[in-house]
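Hello, quick one for you while I still have it in my head. My current little project is about how a certain protein chain folds up. You're getting the sequence in one-letter code plus the fold written as tokens. Would you mind checking whether the tokens look sensible for this chain? Here's the protein in full, and shout if anything looks odd to you:
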Amino acid sequence: MKRLLIIIIFFLFSLVSINALEVSGEALILMDEDSGRILYSVSPYKEKLIASITKIMTAVIAIESNQLDDLITVDSIIKEAYGSNIYLEVGEKMKLRDLVYGLMLRSGNDAALVIAKYLAKDEKGFVKKMNNKAKKLGMKRTFFLNPHGLDEDGGNKSTAYDMALLTKYANQLKEYQNIVKTKVWQVKTNKKTYVWHNKNKILRLYKWSTGGKTGFTEKARRTLVTTASKNNLNLIVVTLNDGNDWMTHQTLYEYAFNNYRRYLVLNKKKFILKSDYYQERLYIKNDYYYPLKHEETKEVVLKAKLFKNKHYKNEDKVGEVEVYFQNKIVHTEDIFIEVLPKKFNKNISWWQRIFRWFS
């Protein structure tokens, strides 16, 4: 199939300030959630123990099971739990949804074991689900051994980049968003009443925060995943082994919000592309935004590639627009064609068109 190549250079303008950036942490990443662009990082692909931020994956699998309203009876599996718990009792009945709240707000290791056993019959089967999901999400340097993050048999390992990928995916789930942004959750069971306060202090420390998950073990040290949104910028920060993580996350967010803007690179309403081959209107169906600093705007290039299709009809795909940033493709958008009926005349009124259509 032959192609026509049209290159368009796209310039954007904005005023932004540049701030110095000083952060701690053995491995960390600041990612734009919508585009996946890495805005700042230190050893983002270094494999590290991740402790309880493991539970993000446990929560994702529980939510996607579509069984959140199931009432679960707690059994003796909880006797294997240690460390951070929500202190479930054998014989206690609790909805899966509430167990996920306990998992994420209070980092309940007992909740993780109950969830795993209920959804996969045993912990081993659930861990298999976790690793399969990680593979599908492109988490190439992640391996789970348990659903809670304790350092058993070596502990769960991942990277700052992989955990950002997981969080990017998790935030597409509305139920997940609702859970991780909750500051206080109350649950009443057949045994007692719980009032859980979210351990993620960033929700109280930082105005623009929207959720996340804390983690700690003696071997992994402090791990933390958080998200924040402001001015249409949705951000993810992951830190591994950072003793000053609350400050690191706020510093990274302020850096991004002060220096980046979400630019409309492709505007579906104003998309105009002329072609000698196609006389009909060419259009795209989606807008595309990309986070940029002011001085980076000149590095965005659009390349439109059109296919020479001899036979085509209305709404057929006839090409692609590739968005390049710093000579690398960051997005591809399909181009479609609008083929009007032969008798269609743009100079006649809509009432005349409707009348002709019925005729």
